[in-house]
Design a protein that fits this description.
Layout: H1 12-16, H2 23-31, E1 34-37, H3 44-55, E2 60-66, E3 71-76, H4 82-91, E4 97-99, H5 111-138, H6 143-164, H7 166-177, H8 184-203, H9 211-232, H10 238-244, E5 249-254, E6 257-262, E7 271-274, E8 283-288, E9 291-294, H11 296-299, E10 305-307, E11 312-313, E12 318-319, E13 324-330, H12 336-351, H13 357-384, H14 387-400, H15 404-423, E14 426-428, H16 433-437, E15 442-445, H17 447-451, E16 452-458, H18 466-476, H19 482-493, E17 502-507, E18 511-516, E19 519-524, H20 526-529, E20 537-543, E21 549-557, H21 561-570, E22 574-578, H22 583-593, E23 598-599, H23 604-616, E24 621-624, H24 631-636, E25 639-643, H25 648-653, E26 656-658, H26 666-699, H27 705-724
Parallel strand pairs: 15-22, 15-24, 22-23, 24-25, 25-26
Antiparallel strand pairs: 1-3, 1-4, 2-3, 5-6, 5-7, 7-13, 8-11, 8-13, 9-10, 9-12, 14-26, 16-21, 17-18, 18-19, 19-20, 20-21
Helix pairs in contact: 5-6, 5-9, 6-8, 6-9, 7-8, 8-9, 8-14, 9-15, 9-27, 10-12, 13-14, 13-26, 14-26, 14-27, 15-26, 15-27, 18-19, 26-27
Length: about 725
């Protein structure tokens, strides 16, 4: 599989793969000595290809791919190095980068979701059994039979509430200790009061017990809590992913020769060796060697840059063609990559301060509920002197005003809207992302890998002589340069037979050369071949003393990019292109897509600063990007989207992931978000209308706790049905 092949497959196995993450894969990751990032892995076939290739490496005990997180965990003997595994994967077309297992939360699992689901199941099972007993009581069971059914109900309900109600009780206790009234305080009081009243009535042989109401209330609230959890479930911190991308070890050069040492042991002034294909472990200055470096992950530049003595390099950049010796200027926490991680962490913290509609509603709702319940208790106790009646009415008020519908209002809509967006190719990771997406008035795009496919494609090969194409194919096949690889693939697809080139060798930092029919032939940089530079990205071929021939490349626009930009502009959104790439390709793409606002050669911190500045002006920015250079901007934006083909850190920093290649559904996503926000507001209106009718009924003593629970359930069902209208 080519490194350029990043399309998302639509086969059933690919769709099922994230769901089918096995326990064995997680265990392998925990035990692994080496963890590699796989940015281009996207389907079930990739899993088998990668695992099969790695398992053939001597010393590898096991290899497990986690497709959801796009990484592979390898358990191997100490003699097996990450460089060997990276080279093996590169040979079959999968670029890989080593991650530091110590900086990853590899043991994190879906414990919270499983815990909520288990408590929900227990509450549902108990509710059904208690309802059966309640039907018997409602049908006319009296005296001893009724008391027996009440005791059986108590035996089922009390342990169930003690177990299933823990999420509410713990949260309520934490709120009380913090001297505030959260949403879970009235919920917990309603559960405890209804259970206590029911138990008292059972002891006294009373006609009514409300265990069914308490367990039903717990079940509905757990359903809302689980929906909320699923809608908010997100990947690990983007800052953590960035930190893990730092190379954990480096080859230090000393008086005794080469030594593999942890990055933390390096100090400014040390000399380190970076071999071809390796990532820069530190910030430094090249003291020896010549090569080309790929900065696309950090800056978005599509064309590799020459690096020789005196060149400054940064941690995270990739050395392409020749060995380099670096003098360390900054390592570990002082490196530019680590500073970028800190920038992302700060931006993420700022974004989490967004307050959802539900949270804003809860601020005034919870105190009002407690005041109403306490007031009803005191008034009825004063009027009747009947403690039992006053407690019953207070419990009914708490239950009937219980924020079950309010708790379901947001997650029910988010779940429904997320399903609709998923069918359009968007995976919503954050529970408040839809609310924030509905507020967007400005859209900022990255270029490489976002508005374009991120893969150089040769232009106009049909216009070249067959001899030139054959020689180019023979030279390109011997080079690891991205342009050479793209040219080689394109010529192979054209069925061009490579010419037989002798004495092939790659000249680090310049290109590849050899002899063909006695003539020196070269493929590489313009200055090396004495060629005149062209505006487009290009590599040059020279045969003997003939004039150099340019092979031009373009990064094709992503499918639907033009349609998405046009639709967003028509909808009144401000649309910008901010890229780290050179000015010429950025200007060309902007003109092609009809974008009048664009910026080239933007550094990662400049992208983030631009987004932050626009938001300081009151704008709500949607950032769409895919690279390391976009992570800070993605985290800083009001809401963010990244393609599934993006680097792990970019996908983690974003709120929504674009699963396919087509950008045209993006305006639909904004429209669906606006609809979802409207449904959320409608649900709040329904909840408030319900309370306006039901609360007076409870306050005047016309609603028992059972009737209150039925009314509460009806409001919850109404809210859920309104949310389903999105589908």
């Amino acid at each position: 599989m080519s490194t350029l092949a990043t399309n998302i497959s639509a086969c059933p196995a690919c769709v099922a793969a994230p769901v089918a993450e096995t326990i064995a894969a997680r265990r392998a990751e925990r035990e692994a000595g080496i963890v590699l990032s796989l940015p281009t892995a996207h389907c079930a076939a990739c899993i088998s290809d990668v695992e099969r290739a790695l398992n053939t490496v001597p010393g590898v005990r096991s290899a497990r791919v986690n497709l959801t997180q796009k990484r592979v965990s390898v358990a191997a003997l100490p003699s097996v190095g990450a460089e060997e595994l990276v080279a093996r994967l590169a040979a079959i077309g999968y670029p890989a980068h080593e991650l530091d297992p110590g900086l990853l939360s590899t043991t994190a699992t879906d414990r919270q979701g499983r815990d909520l689901l288990m408590r929900l199941g227990v509450a549902g099972f108990s509710m059904m059994n208690i309802m059966l007993l309640s039907f018997a009581v409602w049908s006319g069971a009296e005296a001893a039979t009724r008391d027996l059914f009440h005791w059986i109900s108590a035996a089922i309900a009390l342990p169930t509430l003690a177990f299933s109600g823990q999420p509410f009780f713990k949260s309520a206790w934490a709120s009380i200790r913090a001297r505030r009234l959260g949403m879970d305080v009235p919920i917990s009081l309603a559960l405890i009061l209804s259970s206590a009243i029911s138990l008292f009535e059972t002891f006294e042989g009373g006609e009514h017990a409300y265990f069914d109401a308490a367990v039903s209330l717990c079940f509905f609230l757990l359903a809302g809590r689980y929906l909320d959890y699923r809608s908010r479930a997100a990947a690990r911190s983007a800052a953590e992913e960035l930190a893990a991308l730092e190379v954990p070890r480096a080859t230090r050069l000393g008086p005794e020769g080469e030594a593999i040492v942890p990055i933390v042991d390096l100090a400014p002034g040390d000399l380190v060796l970076v071999r071809p294909g390796g990532r820069m472990p530190v910030d430094g200055v090249v003291t020896e060697g010549a090569s080309e470096i790929d900065r696309s992950l950090l800056t978005g530049e599509t064309l590799p840059l020459y690096a020789g003595p005196g060149s400054v390099v940064s941690a995270g950049e990739v050395n392409l063609t020749g060995p380099l010796t670096l003098r360390v200027t900054a390592a570990g926490r002082d490196s530019s990559l680590h500073r970028m991680a800190e920038l992302v962490a700060v931006a993420e913290t700022a974004r989490t301060r967004y307050t959802s509609l539900a949270d804003r509603m809860a601020r005034g709702y919870s105190p009002s509920v407690h005041i109403l319940a306490l007031s009803s208790f005191l008034v009825w106790l004063y009027l009747t002197g009947d403690l039992r009646l006053a407690v019953n009415i207070a419990a009914a008020v708490l239950i009937i005003t219980c924020p079950c519908a309010l708790a379901l209002a947001v997650p029910a809509v988010v779940t429904s809207a997320s399903g609709k967006l998923f069918r359009k190719g968007f995976l919503v990771k954050d529970g408040t992302a839809l609310e924030r997406l509905a507020e967007v008035d400005t859209v900022v795009f990255d270029k490489t890998g976002t508005l374009t496919l991120g893969a150089p494609a040769p232009l106009g090969l049909d216009g070249h002589h067959a001899r030139d194409l054959a020689v180019a194919a023979g030279l390109a096949a011997a080079s690891g340069h991205p342009l050479s690889r793209a040219l080689s693939v394109a010529l192979r697809d054209m069925a061009i037979a490579p010419a037989t080139i002798e004495d092939l060798r790659e000249v680090p930092g310049y290109g590849v050369e050899g002899r063909w029919q006695g003539s020196l032939v070269r493929l590489g940089r313009a200055e090396w071949l004495g060629a005149k530079l062209v505006e487009e990205t290009a590599t040059f071929l020279r045969i003997g003393a003939a004039d150099p021939i340019a092979f031009r490349f373009s990064d094709s626009p992503r499918i639907g990019a033009a349609a998405a930009v046009a639709a967003l502009q028509q909808a009144g959104k401000r649309v910008l292109l901010i890229s780290g790439d050179a000015e010429a390709p950025v200007a060309r793409l902007a003109a092609e897509l009809g974008l009048t606002e664009w910026q080239a050669q933007a550094l990662p911190q400049e992208k983030a600063a631009k987004v932050t500045a626009m938001q300081a002006e009151g704008r709500k920015v949607l950032m769409v990007g895919d690279g390391l250079n976009d992570t800070a901007a993605l985290a800083s934006a009001h809401v963010s989207i990244s393609p599934a083909s993006a680097l792990d850190a970019a996908r983690v920093a974003s709120d929504i992931v674009l699963l396919g290649q087509d950008l045209s559904p993006l305006p639909d996503a904004l429209r669906i978000a606006v609809q979802a926000r409207r449904r959320i507001k409608q649900n709040f209106a329904l909840s408030l209308a319900y309370n306006a009718v039901a609360v007076p009924v409870a306050l005047v003593g016309l609603a028992t706790p059972l009737i209150a629970a039925l009314a509460m359930s009806t409001s919850s069902v109404t809210v859920s049905l309104n949310a389903l209208r999105l589908k």
